[in-house]
Protein backbone atom coordinates (compact mmCIF):
# COMPACT_ATOMS: atom_id res chain seq x y z
CA UNK A 1 0.00 0.00 0.00
CA UNK A 2 1.46 3.43 -0.90
CA UNK A 3 1.84 5.82 2.06
CA UNK A 4 2.34 9.56 2.30
CA UNK A 5 3.25 11.69 5.28
CA UNK A 6 4.78 15.06 6.07
CA UNK A 7 7.31 15.97 8.76
CA UNK A 8 7.63 19.63 9.80
CA UNK A 9 10.41 20.84 12.09
CA UNK A 10 10.90 24.45 13.20
CA UNK A 11 14.06 26.54 13.03
CA UNK A 12 15.38 27.62 16.41
CA UNK A 13 17.42 30.26 18.13
CA UNK A 14 19.68 29.03 20.92
CA UNK A 15 21.32 30.69 23.93
CA UNK A 16 19.17 33.91 24.02
CA UNK A 17 22.15 35.73 25.52
CA UNK A 18 23.25 34.18 28.83
CA UNK A 19 21.74 30.71 28.34
CA UNK A 20 24.66 29.18 26.44
CA UNK A 21 23.81 25.55 25.52
CA UNK A 22 20.70 25.84 27.74
CA UNK A 23 17.96 28.07 26.29
CA UNK A 24 16.27 27.77 22.91
CA UNK A 25 13.18 29.06 21.10
CA UNK A 26 11.51 27.14 18.28
CA UNK A 27 10.73 29.62 15.47
CA UNK A 28 7.96 29.54 12.87
CA UNK A 29 10.16 28.78 9.88
CA UNK A 30 9.71 25.10 9.04
CA UNK A 31 11.91 22.47 7.43
CA UNK A 32 9.41 20.20 5.67
CA UNK A 33 9.80 16.63 4.42
CA UNK A 34 7.18 15.22 2.05
CA UNK A 35 7.55 11.47 2.28
CA UNK A 36 6.02 9.16 -0.29
CA UNK A 37 6.44 5.39 -0.04
CA UNK A 38 5.34 3.54 -3.14
CA UNK A 39 6.61 -0.04 -3.41
CA UNK A 40 5.61 -0.12 -7.10
CA UNK A 41 8.44 2.44 -7.80
CA UNK A 42 11.40 0.58 -6.32
CA UNK A 43 14.35 2.52 -7.81
CA UNK A 44 14.37 5.86 -9.60
CA UNK A 45 18.01 6.95 -10.02
CA UNK A 46 21.61 5.94 -9.42
CA UNK A 47 21.61 7.92 -6.14
CA UNK A 48 18.80 5.91 -4.57
CA UNK A 49 20.95 4.12 -1.97
CA UNK A 50 19.07 2.26 0.78
CA UNK A 51 15.82 2.40 -1.31
CA UNK A 52 15.61 6.17 -0.82
CA UNK A 53 15.31 8.86 -3.48
CA UNK A 54 16.06 12.33 -2.11
CA UNK A 55 15.04 15.60 -3.76
CA UNK A 56 15.49 19.08 -2.28
CA UNK A 57 14.45 22.70 -2.72
CA UNK A 58 15.21 25.86 -0.78
CA UNK A 59 18.14 26.93 1.37
CA UNK A 60 21.20 24.82 0.63
CA UNK A 61 19.86 23.36 -2.60
CA UNK A 62 23.15 24.11 -4.38
CA UNK A 63 25.30 22.37 -1.78
CA UNK A 64 23.35 19.77 0.19
CA UNK A 65 24.26 16.25 -0.99
CA UNK A 66 21.37 14.23 -2.40
CA UNK A 67 23.07 10.90 -1.89
CA UNK A 68 21.33 9.31 1.13
CA UNK A 69 24.79 8.04 2.14
CA UNK A 70 26.01 11.63 2.61
CA UNK A 71 22.99 13.71 3.55
CA UNK A 72 22.62 14.61 7.24
CA UNK A 73 18.85 13.95 7.21
CA UNK A 74 19.05 10.46 5.72
CA UNK A 75 22.23 9.50 7.59
CA UNK A 76 20.40 10.37 10.80
CA UNK A 77 17.36 8.34 9.72
CA UNK A 78 19.58 5.37 8.79
CA UNK A 79 21.26 5.54 12.21
CA UNK A 80 17.87 5.26 13.92
CA UNK A 81 16.74 2.47 11.56
CA UNK A 82 19.95 0.48 12.14
CA UNK A 83 19.49 0.85 15.91
CA UNK A 84 16.19 -0.98 15.33
CA UNK A 85 17.85 -3.62 13.15
CA UNK A 86 16.32 -2.23 9.97
CA UNK A 87 18.86 -1.96 7.14
CA UNK A 88 17.13 0.20 4.56
CA UNK A 89 14.23 2.54 3.96
CA UNK A 90 11.05 0.78 2.76
CA UNK A 91 11.19 -0.02 -0.97
CA UNK A 92 10.10 2.97 -3.08
CA UNK A 93 10.75 5.73 -0.50
CA UNK A 94 10.90 9.25 -1.93
CA UNK A 95 11.75 12.12 0.46
CA UNK A 96 11.26 15.64 -0.91
CA UNK A 97 12.84 18.29 1.31
CA UNK A 98 11.63 21.92 1.41
CA UNK A 99 14.02 23.99 3.48
CA UNK A 100 13.56 27.68 4.27
CA UNK A 101 16.14 27.61 7.13
CA UNK A 102 19.47 29.16 6.08
CA UNK A 103 22.42 26.85 6.72
CA UNK A 104 25.24 27.72 9.12
CA UNK A 105 23.66 31.01 10.25
CA UNK A 106 22.64 30.29 13.84
CA UNK A 107 19.00 29.37 13.18
CA UNK A 108 19.32 25.70 14.02
CA UNK A 109 19.43 24.26 10.49
CA UNK A 110 21.45 21.23 11.58
CA UNK A 111 19.28 20.70 14.67
CA UNK A 112 16.16 20.78 12.47
CA UNK A 113 17.77 18.34 10.00
CA UNK A 114 18.68 15.91 12.80
CA UNK A 115 15.21 16.10 14.36
CA UNK A 116 13.63 15.63 10.91
CA UNK A 117 15.90 12.63 10.23
CA UNK A 118 14.86 10.93 13.47
CA UNK A 119 11.17 11.66 12.77
CA UNK A 120 11.64 10.32 9.23
CA UNK A 121 12.93 6.99 10.55
CA UNK A 122 10.16 6.87 13.12
CA UNK A 123 7.59 7.48 10.37
CA UNK A 124 8.87 5.15 7.64
CA UNK A 125 9.38 2.20 9.99
CA UNK A 126 6.41 3.00 12.24
CA UNK A 127 8.68 2.75 15.29
CA UNK A 128 6.18 4.56 17.57
CA UNK A 129 8.95 6.35 19.47
CA UNK A 130 7.85 9.07 21.88
CA UNK A 131 9.22 12.59 21.36
CA UNK A 132 11.28 12.13 24.49
CA UNK A 133 12.91 8.94 23.12
CA UNK A 134 13.46 10.60 19.74
CA UNK A 135 15.29 13.37 21.61
CA UNK A 136 17.75 10.74 22.91
CA UNK A 137 18.61 9.74 19.35
CA UNK A 138 19.02 13.40 18.33
CA UNK A 139 21.33 14.07 21.29
CA UNK A 140 23.65 11.26 20.22
CA UNK A 141 24.25 13.29 17.08
CA UNK A 142 24.09 16.96 18.14
CA UNK A 143 25.44 17.01 21.66
CA UNK A 144 24.19 20.29 22.99
CA UNK A 145 20.50 20.19 23.75
CA UNK A 146 19.35 23.78 23.15
CA UNK A 147 18.50 23.83 19.40
CA UNK A 148 17.47 20.17 19.30
CA UNK A 149 15.06 20.48 22.23
CA UNK A 150 13.50 23.69 20.89
CA UNK A 151 13.07 22.10 17.44
CA UNK A 152 11.56 18.86 18.78
CA UNK A 153 9.42 20.26 21.61
CA UNK A 154 8.74 23.82 20.37
CA UNK A 155 8.23 27.05 22.28
CA UNK A 156 10.72 28.57 24.71
CA UNK A 157 12.66 25.80 26.44
CA UNK A 158 15.47 25.26 28.91
CA UNK A 159 17.32 21.96 28.80
CA UNK A 160 20.21 20.01 30.23
CA UNK A 161 21.90 16.67 29.61
CA UNK A 162 21.63 14.42 32.63
CA UNK A 163 24.82 13.01 34.11
CA UNK A 164 25.25 9.52 32.76
CA UNK A 165 26.53 6.50 34.67
CA UNK A 166 29.93 5.05 33.74
CA UNK A 167 28.36 2.23 31.71
CA UNK A 168 26.00 4.61 29.91
CA UNK A 169 28.91 6.93 29.20
CA UNK A 170 30.65 4.07 27.45
CA UNK A 171 27.72 4.01 25.07
CA UNK A 172 27.31 7.77 24.73
CA UNK A 173 30.85 9.11 24.59
CA UNK A 174 31.29 7.67 21.17
CA UNK A 175 32.98 9.53 18.35
CA UNK A 176 30.37 11.10 16.11
CA UNK A 177 31.85 9.19 13.17
CA UNK A 178 30.66 5.97 14.77
CA UNK A 179 27.15 7.28 15.37
CA UNK A 180 26.88 8.77 11.89
CA UNK A 181 29.48 7.05 9.71
CA UNK A 182 30.05 8.85 6.45
CA UNK A 183 29.08 7.29 4.12
CA UNK A 184 26.14 5.89 6.06
CA UNK A 185 27.03 2.49 4.62
CA UNK A 186 29.85 2.48 7.22
CA UNK A 187 27.54 0.35 9.34
CA UNK A 188 27.95 -2.37 6.73
CA UNK A 189 31.54 -2.80 7.87
CA UNK A 190 30.21 -4.61 10.93
CA UNK A 191 29.84 -1.65 13.31
CA UNK A 192 26.78 -1.90 15.51
CA UNK A 193 25.34 1.57 15.95
CA UNK A 194 25.53 2.80 19.54
CA UNK A 195 21.99 2.80 20.93
CA UNK A 196 21.31 5.92 23.03
CA UNK A 197 20.87 5.60 26.79
CA UNK A 198 17.33 6.49 27.96
CA UNK A 199 16.40 10.07 28.87
CA UNK A 200 19.69 11.77 28.04
CA UNK A 201 18.08 15.18 27.80
CA UNK A 202 15.71 16.89 30.23
CA UNK A 203 13.82 20.07 29.50
CA UNK A 204 11.18 22.47 30.69
CA UNK A 205 8.94 24.58 28.51
CA UNK A 206 8.53 28.13 29.81
CA UNK A 207 5.58 30.36 29.07
CA UNK A 208 6.18 33.09 26.52
CA UNK A 209 4.65 36.54 26.54
CA UNK A 210 2.81 36.58 23.20
CA UNK A 211 3.49 40.29 22.61
CA UNK A 212 7.18 39.46 22.16
CA UNK A 213 8.21 38.88 18.54
CA UNK A 214 11.56 37.65 17.26
CA UNK A 215 13.45 39.68 14.65
CA UNK A 216 16.13 37.57 12.94
CA UNK A 217 18.78 39.54 11.02
CA UNK A 218 20.57 37.03 8.83
CA UNK A 219 23.95 38.03 7.35
CA UNK A 220 24.94 36.64 3.97
CA UNK A 221 27.85 34.58 5.29
CA UNK A 222 28.05 31.30 7.17
CA UNK A 223 29.78 30.53 10.46
CA UNK A 224 29.83 26.83 11.21
CA UNK A 225 28.88 25.89 14.76
CA UNK A 226 32.13 23.91 15.04
CA UNK A 227 34.22 26.99 14.18
CA UNK A 228 32.18 29.23 16.47
CA UNK A 229 32.65 26.81 19.38
CA UNK A 230 36.34 26.56 18.55
CA UNK A 231 36.97 30.19 19.60
CA UNK A 232 35.52 29.69 23.10
CA UNK A 233 37.81 29.24 26.10
CA UNK A 234 37.99 25.95 27.99
CA UNK A 235 37.50 27.63 31.40
CA UNK A 236 35.83 30.77 32.76
CA UNK A 237 36.32 33.05 35.72
CA UNK A 238 33.86 32.77 38.60
CA UNK A 239 32.72 36.36 38.05
CA UNK A 240 31.84 35.71 34.39
CA UNK A 241 29.88 32.56 35.30
CA UNK A 242 28.01 34.33 38.09
CA UNK A 243 27.25 37.20 35.68
CA UNK A 244 25.52 34.76 33.30
CA UNK A 245 23.76 32.69 35.97
CA UNK A 246 22.23 35.79 37.57
CA UNK A 247 20.86 36.98 34.24
CA UNK A 248 19.66 33.53 33.17
CA UNK A 249 17.62 33.17 36.36
CA UNK A 250 15.87 36.49 35.71
CA UNK A 251 15.45 36.13 31.94
CA UNK A 252 13.41 32.91 31.86
CA UNK A 253 10.64 34.53 33.91
CA UNK A 254 11.03 38.06 32.52
CA UNK A 255 10.09 36.74 29.04
CA UNK A 256 6.81 35.34 30.39
CA UNK A 257 5.48 38.57 31.91
CA UNK A 258 3.00 40.90 30.24
CA UNK A 259 3.67 43.71 29.63
CA UNK A 260 7.36 42.86 29.16
CA UNK A 261 9.85 44.96 31.14
CA UNK A 262 12.34 46.21 28.50
CA UNK A 263 14.93 47.47 30.96
CA UNK A 264 14.99 44.16 32.85
CA UNK A 265 15.06 41.99 29.72
CA UNK A 266 17.73 44.04 27.97
CA UNK A 267 20.08 43.70 30.95
CA UNK A 268 19.19 40.03 31.46
CA UNK A 269 20.15 39.19 27.86
CA UNK A 270 23.79 40.26 28.38
CA UNK A 271 26.38 37.49 28.21
CA UNK A 272 30.03 36.93 29.11
CA UNK A 273 30.38 33.28 28.17
CA UNK A 274 30.22 33.11 24.36
CA UNK A 275 29.41 36.40 22.61
CA UNK A 276 32.60 38.30 23.60
CA UNK A 277 34.72 35.54 22.04
CA UNK A 278 32.61 35.23 18.91
CA UNK A 279 32.90 38.89 17.95
CA UNK A 280 36.17 38.00 16.16
CA UNK A 281 34.06 35.94 13.73
CA UNK A 282 31.18 38.39 13.38
CA UNK A 283 32.16 41.96 12.45
CA UNK A 284 29.76 44.50 13.99
CA UNK A 285 28.56 42.18 16.78
CA UNK A 286 30.03 44.29 19.55
CA UNK A 287 28.48 47.53 18.27
CA UNK A 288 25.11 45.84 17.69
CA UNK A 289 24.88 44.41 21.20
CA UNK A 290 26.04 47.63 22.89
CA UNK A 291 24.64 50.56 20.89
CA UNK A 292 21.05 49.53 20.07
CA UNK A 293 19.07 49.76 23.30
CA UNK A 294 15.42 50.13 24.42
CA UNK A 295 16.21 53.81 25.18
CA UNK A 296 17.15 54.54 21.59
CA UNK A 297 14.71 52.08 19.97
CA UNK A 298 11.28 51.94 21.63
CA UNK A 299 9.74 48.48 21.40
CA UNK A 300 13.12 46.76 21.63
CA UNK A 301 13.52 44.34 24.56
CA UNK A 302 16.90 42.72 23.99
CA UNK A 303 19.54 41.75 21.44
CA UNK A 304 21.81 38.74 21.24
CA UNK A 305 23.64 36.45 18.87
CA UNK A 306 21.35 33.68 17.63
CA UNK A 307 22.96 30.31 18.34
CA UNK A 308 26.54 30.17 17.13
CA UNK A 309 25.86 33.15 14.80
CA UNK A 310 26.14 35.11 12.63
CA UNK A 311 22.36 35.81 12.83
CA UNK A 312 21.32 38.46 15.35
CA UNK A 313 18.14 37.88 17.36
CA UNK A 314 16.30 40.99 18.57
CA UNK A 315 13.25 40.54 20.80
CA UNK A 316 10.73 43.36 20.43
CA UNK A 317 7.08 44.32 20.78
CA UNK A 318 6.98 47.10 18.18
CA UNK A 319 8.93 49.19 15.60
CA UNK A 320 10.36 46.04 14.03
CA UNK A 321 11.43 47.81 10.80
CA UNK A 322 13.37 50.50 12.67
CA UNK A 323 15.18 47.99 14.85
CA UNK A 324 16.04 45.79 11.87
CA UNK A 325 17.22 48.84 9.87
CA UNK A 326 19.57 49.89 12.70
CA UNK A 327 21.17 46.43 12.80
CA UNK A 328 21.37 46.20 8.98
CA UNK A 329 23.07 49.59 9.00
CA UNK A 330 25.83 48.43 11.34
CA UNK A 331 26.42 45.31 9.25
CA UNK A 332 26.46 47.46 6.09
CA UNK A 333 29.34 49.53 7.51
CA UNK A 334 31.22 46.20 7.66
CA UNK A 335 30.25 45.49 4.02
CA UNK A 336 27.91 42.70 5.11
CA UNK A 337 24.50 42.44 3.47
CA UNK A 338 21.66 40.75 5.32
CA UNK A 339 18.06 39.75 5.01
CA UNK A 340 15.70 39.86 7.95
CA UNK A 341 12.57 38.08 9.07
CA UNK A 342 9.95 38.76 11.70
CA UNK A 343 9.27 35.44 13.43
CA UNK A 344 7.26 34.07 16.33
CA UNK A 345 7.76 31.02 18.53
CA UNK A 346 6.69 27.70 16.99
CA UNK A 347 4.83 26.49 20.05
CA UNK A 348 4.22 22.86 19.00
CA UNK A 349 7.69 21.86 17.80
CA UNK A 350 8.16 19.02 15.32
CA UNK A 351 5.05 17.32 13.90
CA UNK A 352 4.30 14.42 11.61
CA UNK A 353 1.06 14.39 9.62
CA UNK A 354 -0.07 11.22 7.79
CA UNK A 355 -2.13 11.79 4.62
N1 LIG B 1 18.31 20.59 5.55
C1 LIG B 1 19.53 20.08 5.62
N2 LIG B 1 19.86 19.00 4.92
C2 LIG B 1 21.10 18.48 4.98
N3 LIG B 1 22.09 18.98 5.73
C3 LIG B 1 21.82 20.06 6.46
C4 LIG B 1 20.54 20.67 6.45
N4 LIG B 1 20.56 21.72 7.28
C5 LIG B 1 21.80 21.77 7.79
N5 LIG B 1 22.56 20.79 7.31
C6 LIG B 1 23.99 20.54 7.62
O1 LIG B 1 24.31 21.27 8.80
C7 LIG B 1 25.34 22.25 8.53
C8 LIG B 1 25.08 23.53 9.30
O2 LIG B 1 25.15 23.23 10.67
P1 LIG B 1 25.73 24.24 11.75
O3 LIG B 1 25.53 23.58 13.08
O4 LIG B 1 27.11 24.65 11.38
O5 LIG B 1 24.82 25.51 11.62
P2 LIG B 1 23.31 25.82 12.06
O6 LIG B 1 22.71 24.57 12.63
O7 LIG B 1 22.62 26.44 10.92
O8 LIG B 1 23.54 26.91 13.19
P3 LIG B 1 23.32 26.88 14.82
O9 LIG B 1 23.62 25.49 15.29
O10 LIG B 1 24.28 27.90 15.32
O11 LIG B 1 21.91 27.30 15.04
C9 LIG B 1 25.27 22.46 7.02
O12 LIG B 1 26.50 22.90 6.49
C10 LIG B 1 24.88 21.07 6.52
O13 LIG B 1 26.02 20.24 6.48
N1 LIG C 1 24.58 26.58 22.07
C1 LIG C 1 25.17 26.35 20.79
C2 LIG C 1 24.12 26.59 19.73
C3 LIG C 1 24.61 26.34 18.34
O1 LIG C 1 24.27 25.07 17.92
C4 LIG C 1 26.32 27.32 20.58
O2 LIG C 1 26.14 28.51 20.85
O3 LIG C 1 27.40 26.88 20.17
TrEMBL record:
Its EC number is 2.7.1.39. Pathway: Amino-acid biosynthesis; L-threonine biosynthesis; L-threonine from L-aspartate: step 4/5. It is an enzyme of class 2 (transferase). Signal peptide: none annotated. One of its GO terms (biological process) is threonine biosynthetic process. GO terms for molecular function: ATP binding; homoserine kinase activity. The keyword Aminoacyl-tRNA synthetase does not apply. It holds the Pfam family GHMP_kinases_N. Residues 71-155 form the GHMP kinase N-terminal domain. It catalyses: L-homoserine + ATP = O-phospho-L-homoserine + ADP + H(+). InterPro entries: GHMP_kinase_C_dom (IPR013750), GHMP_kinase_C_sf (IPR036554), GHMP_kinase_N_dom (IPR006204), GHMP_knse_ATP-bd_CS (IPR006203), Homoserine_kinase (IPR000870), Ribosomal_Su5_D2-typ_SF (IPR020568), Ribsml_uS5_D2-typ_fold_subgr (IPR014721). Residues 262-326 form the GHMP kinase C-terminal domain. The keyword Magnesium does not apply. Keywords: Amino-acid biosynthesis, ATP-binding, Kinase, Nucleotide-binding, Threonine biosynthesis, Transferase. Gene3D superfamilies: 3.30.230.10, GHMP kinase, C-terminal domain. PANTHER family: HOMOSERINE KINASE, HOMOSERINE/4-DIPHOSPHOCYTIDYL-2-C-METHYL-D-ERYTHRITOL KINASE. Belongs to the GHMP kinase family. Homoserine kinase subfamily. Commits homoserine to the threonine biosynthesis pathway by catalyzing its O-phosphorylation. This is Homoserine kinase. It comes from Saccharomycopsis crataegensis.
